[in-house]
Design brief:
The structure is a homodimer.
Chain A lengths: L6 H21 L6 H8 L3 H7 L3 H9 L19 H10 L1 H8 L5 H21 L6 H22 L7 H19 L7
The structure holds a DNA duplex (30 and 30 nucleotides).
Pfam families (chains A, B): TetR_C_8, TetR_N
Keywords (chains A, B): DNA-binding
GO molecular function (chains A, B): DNA binding
DNA sequence: CTCCTCTCGAACAACCTGTTCTGTTATGAA
DNA sequence: TTCATAACAGAACAGGTTGTTCGAGAGGAG
């Protein structure tokens, strides 16, 4: 009894989520219709609405798979060391991430992903001694914006690079300025 | 004869664009229908399709007003000095920018705005002596991503700050790292 | 095996789209 | 001012999507 739910329910939800990812990769998020989804998932129309109120709800359920954006940061190593593991994780789940965060993805998901990452960044900066305030908020936005932009372009294959290269340029680009602006020591 | 077009044409197109901006601010881009648009603009259905093939075409026509993202950078002052004038311009056109680039805006416009800004950033870095290559591409993405993230949050009023504050934190956060990573001197 | 949940598939009204048509009005040129 | 014409309004249209409802049937839990 995985998850304590009927096997049929698992099968149905999984089929719908899988179908959504496939269809987003083919046509982008917005053009995907519920009719497309149930055709691809081979599921009855009423069945769909028994599980999800609309298309967007499927999106959010698929989002759980992107929980790596919530990974707890380490505060002892070099700054923003969440970066390398995340890029590696993104590479492993490239299909999913491209569907959700890539160019063809929806706007809502991007905002959600950004907010997850913001928490990670803010937490690390606070742990390193930054003081809460407007400047911290701005800096967090910069760091998050830069990282997410890299991820978006990377999964869309507008950038060709290895996780290590992405990580190196990302950290080298934002860490010095941000840490100095917040008066935080570079290494612990 | 402004623009050498029939006055009725100007009136119609303007009304439709204005209606789109209003409706995006009220409900977001995606839920806006052509039927909404023509009702708000008080324009006949056939008239709409005589001017635009679809909703998205209106969006792109409104985009022309955001040409300030294409402003030519100066290469003599401090790095990334396009930032302050742009933030000021954004403040003046807050309504429009929020509709197009803000949370309720569409994904396509965001990509378009990002690509405009990327050109500006890349041009400046090349003028400062950076060498073309993968590292430059990554750095440009970081800078652009950080800037656009600030703009998005600012117009959506998730950040409260003056253009000068935004400019200061933005430049302080990204300039040192990026210039160092590209082996470019800090000041000319 | 039995019961109950889940699923199927059809049918539905309501909405939106993009096109076509006819008749009307405003515009710019003469 | 007059006038030909380009632009407009408004209705009607087929085709597609949405979200709901219903009864019949299949599949899993116990």
């Amino acid at each position: 009894m995985s998850g304590n739910v009927d096997r049929r329910v698992r099968r149905t939800r999984q089929a719908i989520q899988r179908a959504l990812v496939e269809l987003i990769l083919e046509k982008g998020y917005e053009p995907v219709t519920v009719t497309d989804l149930i055709a691809r998932a081979d599921v009855g129309r009423s069945t769909f609405y028994a599980h999800y109120p609309d298309k967007q709800a499927v999106l959010f359920s698929a989002l759980e798979e992107m929980a790596f954006l919530r990974a707890a940061p380490r505060h002892d190593g070099p700054p923003f060391s969440f970066s390398l593991p995340m890029f590696e994780h993104v590479r492993e789940q490239r299909r999913l991430v491209r569907a959700l965060l890539g160019r063809r993805g929806g706007r809502v998901v991007m905002a959600y992903g950004e907010s997850l990452l913001e928490d990670v960044v803010r937490e690390e900066l606070l742990a390193r001694g930054a003081r809460p305030g407007a400047t911290l908020d701005l800096a967090v936005t910069c760091v998050t914006g830069a990282f997410m932009a890299l991820v978006r372009k990377w999964v869309d294959e507008e950038l060709r690079a290895t996780p290590a290269e992405l990580d190196a340029v990302f950290r080298a680009s934002v860490a010095p300025g941000v840490l100095a602006a917040l008066e935080v020591p570079g290494q612990s």
